[in-house]
Design goal:
This protein starts with a helix and ends with a helix. It is built from 15 helices and 27 strands. Strand 23, helix 9 and strand 24 form a beta-alpha-beta unit. The longest helix has 21 residues. It folds into three domains: 98 residues, Sandwich (Immunoglobulin-like), CATH 2.60.40.1120; 89 residues, Immunoglobulin-like (Sandwich), CATH 2.60.40.2550; 314 residues, Metal-dependent hydrolases (TIM Barrel, Alpha-Beta Barrel), CATH 3.20.20.140. It is of the alpha/beta class. Helix 3 packs across helix 6 and helix 8 packs parallel to helix 9. Strands 19, 20, 21, 22, 23 and 24 form a six-stranded parallel sheet that branches. Strands 1, 4, 15, 17 and 18 form a five-stranded mixed sheet that branches. Strands 5, 6, 9, 12 and 13 form a five-stranded antiparallel sheet that branches. It binds zinc ion (ZN). The site of zinc ion (ZN) has 5 residues, from loops. The site of zinc ion has 5 residues, from loops.
Length: 548
């Protein structure tokens, strides 16, 4: 190479550099993401920088100190270094003109990646695995089966991310295609350099409520976030808890944390419970002849526990009560009655129970009355409500008491639906298609409850969830998935039956474990908004509609 050639190349390079620099505009944007409650750094939180002017998105992850940083280039030069530390899975969008669904994703480190597609029951429909180098990729899902909700996950090393996917009808039915290279990593902006861009920065992390902040993009920009745990922020209500029986019969104290049983006030707080339905259940095998008198003992015992723990718990009769009690950092306790036998065929006694605060009545327990038939009764499909039974239903409607049909016979539920003007609930039941037990609901019953506007509180009792094997949080989620798949997200809730059940699923050993259910629902692919509906918003809707 001659000296002259070298000089020419050097001059050319200088020229290229000067051109590049003359157009290059850089802005460094950085900050921290912390947990709002603990102030602790949040590792691997995703930060999305959306440039307002052109809608382009850029991504960064926080490090173990909760810090993140991104340098935006305005030059149009590809910036291949700015790939997330691990990998990034993007949300797909269904295209009605092409029923295949494209799943784009970005890989930051070379390695083996697995893409899988699941149905709402968690059954794997298809899977692809490939060794990939850093860059952008995509894979097409060609719909298999009818339209509906599916989930896809991407797995690499020890990380796994799941997203929801809306499948449309009419695809090639071939499942997943091949993992293919997508567009280059270039995500540079093409803004005129005179523009002073602005951005909306959003921080998110699984288990937390995302937060956004608008900012002007100068040369150096700091945007800090404090994220609140979704479970803390969500309204959490459990539709069925039997701990009052232990208070009445054994002098169990709600104010003290115990290492046995499933519930007490300290554990309700650890579990993030905002409202608890406390069940008045009079065992008909022991107290049938004094059912009403025994029921009043439960109300008295509850009043006594509230008086003893008045800074921690208060009785709620309306949604406004619940919100006011929660605003004082207290648990809202709502009294409910399980088993129509307690009214002793007397509408005046029903009215008195309402006056004491009863806000749902489970029409029967396992015992039938002469006005309503239990699901355990051999006459479940043939014998429904008597004329007096219909009067009871109309009285509940006029008072503003929710009708609960867990334990209730098939014909009786049909008669209730034909009589009531309001949404009904099943406070603690499972799905009969998953576990054939009389305490669980057939598909047409789930549809009928949903059509009434009501909700099904999924029970935690392992014996109702599965006929054999180990029962876990995911077994509970299978029942939730089934209901969601059948009638949508608006008709499912939590009805643990804690302290009414002899065993629990692994991972849900007592009421303090409810935050783990939230995390499992999010990992399974439910969105924050969907999880909040399951945890409490769905029931709150019914409570507001019926109990005002
Ligand atoms: Zn029960």
């Amino acid at each position: 190479m001659t000296l002259r050639t070298t000089a020419t190349i050097a001059l050319l390079m200088l020229l290229i550099c000067s051109i590049t620099f003359s157009h290059a505009q850089q802005t460094r944007i950085y900050g921290t993401v912390l947990d709002q409650t603990t102030g602790m750094a949040l590792d691997s939180a995703l930060v999305n920088i959306r440039v307002t002017e052109n809608g382009q998105n850029f991504f960064a992850f926080t490090n173990s100190s909760g810090q993140w940083e991104y340098t935006l280039q305005f030059s149009g030069v590809a910036d291949r270094e700015q790939v997330p530390t691990s990998f990034l899975l993007r949300q797909n969008y269904p295209n009605p003109f092409n029923p295949s669904t494209r799943i784009p994703f970005t890989i930051a480190r070379a390695g083996e990646v697995t893409i899988s597609v699941y149905n709402v029951l968690g059954q794997e429909l298809d899977s692809r695995r490939a060794f990939v180098t850093p860059g952008n990729y995509f894979i097409d899902w060609n719909s298999r089966g009818g339209s509906g909700v599916l989930f896809y996950s991407i797995e690499m090393e020890n990380e796994r991310h799941t997203r929801k996917m809306l499948q449309l009808d009419g695809g090639k039915s071939s499942g997943l295609g091949q993992i293919l290279r997508g567009a280059s990593g270039a995500e540079a902006m093409s803004l005129a350099k005179t523009d002073a861009p602005t951005a909306v920065v959003t921080a998110s992390k699984l288990g937390y409520e995302p937060d956004s902040s608008a900012t002007d993009l100068g040369e150096d920009n700091q945007v800090d976030f404090q994220l609140e745990l979704l479970h803390t922020k969500a309204f959490v209500v459990d539709l069925h808890n039997d701990v009052l029986e232990k208070v009445v019969d054994r002098g169990y104290q709600l104010g003290v944390r115990h290492s046995y049983n499933h519930s007490d006030i300290p554990r309700f707080f650890e579990g993030g419970v905002d409202a608890q339905m406390f069940v008045v259940w009079v065992n008909p095998n022991a107290y049938l002849s004094i059912s009403y008198q025994k029921a009043l003992q439960f109300f008295d015992a509850f009043d006594n526990q509230v008086a003893l723990n008045s800074t921690k718990i208060a009785q709620a009769r309306t949604t406004d009560d619940i919100f006011q009690i929660n605003a004082q950092n207290k648990l809202a306790g709502v009294l409910v009655v399980e088993g129509g036998h307690v009214i002793e065929n007397d509408l005046e006694k029903l009215k008195e129970l309402y006056r004491r605060g009863m806000r749902y009545l489970t029409i029967t327990w396992n015992n039938s009355t002469n006005w309503a038939t239990s699901a355990e009764d051999s006459r479940s499909t043939t014998r429904g409500l008597s004329d007096f039974g219909k009067q009871v239903i109309r009285m509940l409607d006029s008072l503003g008491v929710i009708i609960d049909v867990s334990h209730v016979g098939i014909k009786t539920i049909e008669d209730i639906l034909a009589t009531t003007q309001y949404p009904i609930i099943a406070s603690h039941s499972g799905v009969r298609a998953l576990r054939n037990h009389y305490r669980n609901l057939y598909d047409n019953q789930i549809v009928a409850i949903a059509n009434s506007g009501g909700v099904i509180g999924v029970v935690f009792y392992p014996y109702f969830l599965a006929s054999s094997g180990t029962t876990t949080i995911n077994t509970v989620i299978k029942h939730i998935d089934y209901i969601v798949n059948l009638v949508g997200i608006d008709h499912v809730a939590i009805g643990s039956d804690y302290d009414g059940i002899g065993s629990t699923p692994v991972g849900l050993e007592d009421v303090s474990k409810l935050p783990d259910l939230t995390l499992a629902l999010l990992k399974h692919g439910y969105s924050n908004a969907e999880v909040k509906k399951i945890l409490g918003e769905n029931f709150l809707r019914v409570f507001q509609q019926v109990c005002q």
